[in-house]
Amino acid sequence: MQPESPSIPADISAAPVSAPAPAPAKLTEVSSLTLEGLTRFLTEDLGERAFRAGQLYRWIHQRGATSFDEMTDLSKALREKLKQRAEIVPLVKDAEQRSVDGTIKYRWKTRDGRFIESVYMPSEDRKTLCVSTQVGCAMACTFCMTGTLGLKRNLTPGEIVAQVHAVNREVRKLENLETLRPLSNLVFMGMGEPLHNFENLKTALSILQSEDGPNFSHRHITVSTVGLVPMIERFGQETDVKLAISLNASTDEQRSKTMPVNRKWNIAALLDACRKFPLRQGRRITFEYVLLQDFNDSDEDAYRLIELLKDIPAKVNLIPYNENPGLGFKTTMDERAERFRELLCEGHVAAFIRQNRGRDIAGACGQLANRGGEKASETPQNPELP
Ligand code: SAH
Known about the structure:
DNA polymerase, domain 1; elongated
C-alpha cells in the first residue's frame, strides 16, 4: 500500500520553509488478508518473493502469532520491513468470566478502544467458539441486549479471525494442549449481524477454512442471520458453510414487533429465500426460535411454525429466553418449552431445546453487551443459576 500523498499547496512558493514531516504511512493490516492478498502485498509492495507470504500467513493464521518478532524463520531484515509497513491487528484481552457450566466469556479491546466479546463453550464432543462480527448491532431486535447498543462499526476480517486465534491460545494454555487448534466448531452468533458485514465475514471465512490457516471444515461452521434476504442468496452462492435463521416468531405481526428487519423482509420473503438456498446433501437450515413467555410460545404458534416450515429441510432450535434487565420479556417455563418441542416433533419438524450456556455470566444468546466497566472476574457472578 502506498502512503497517502500529502496535498500540494496551490502556490508552492507559499509553502513554509520547514514543511511538517509527512504523516506516517498507514500500516497494512496483514492479518485481514487472504493468502492471495498477502502474496500480492509481499511481492508488489515489499518486493519480496512469493513464498514468504506462505510463511507469514502460516505464522499468523496457523500458529496465531501476534508479532513479527516471533517469526524466527523470517530474516531480521524482513521482520524489520514488516514492522515498518504492516501490522497484525491486536485484540487485547480485557476481561474473562467463567460460568459454572464451563463456558468462558472473553471480552476483547480493539485498537480504537471498542469492546467485543466471544464465548467459548466446551462440551464432551466439541469445543465451540461463538464469534462476533460487529461492534454492537444495527438490527435492534427488542429482546436482544446487543441490539440496544446500535452499530458502532464492522469488525475487520483480521479482528474476526483474531478471536479464534486468541481463544485457541487460551484453551491451549488452559487445558495444556499441544494441538495448534483446539477449537473444533465456530458459530457466528456473537455480537452483530454477520450478513450485515458480509465482505469481511467472507474474507474471514476463507481464512478460517484455508489449509494454511486454521483449516476449519465447512461442516463445522454455522453463520446465523436475522434474515437479510438479499444477503442470504449471496451467502449461499459465495460460501459453503451452514446457515441458521433467527425466526423467533410465527406471524408477521409478532415478528415485526420484536425484529424490525421483518418490516422490510417478512416471513414469506425470508422463507422463500430459504427454499431457494443451495443446500448440500443431507444438510438442513437451522431455525432459531427464542421462546418468549405468552408472546410466541402457544400451541397455535407451534402449529403455525409447522405449517411455515413444512416444505423446507429444517431443524428448529428452541432457545429459552435469557432475560435481560429492562427489555421486558420473560422466559418460557420448562414444561411449556417441552410441550412446544413435542408439538413440533409431532408435526414432523425436528426440534431441540438448546441448552442454555453461560447465563450466570451474561454470556448466553442475546446477552452480549459489554456490561460496561465491569471488572474481570474469575468466579461466577451468580452461581445458583442453571
Ligand atoms: N444477528 C445474528 C447473530 C446473533 S445470533 C442473528 O440474529 O441470528 C444470536 C441468537 O440469539 C439469535 O438467534 C437471537 O434470536 C438469539 N437471542 C437474542 N437475544 C436473546 C436472548 N435474550 N435470549 C435468548 N436468545 C436470544
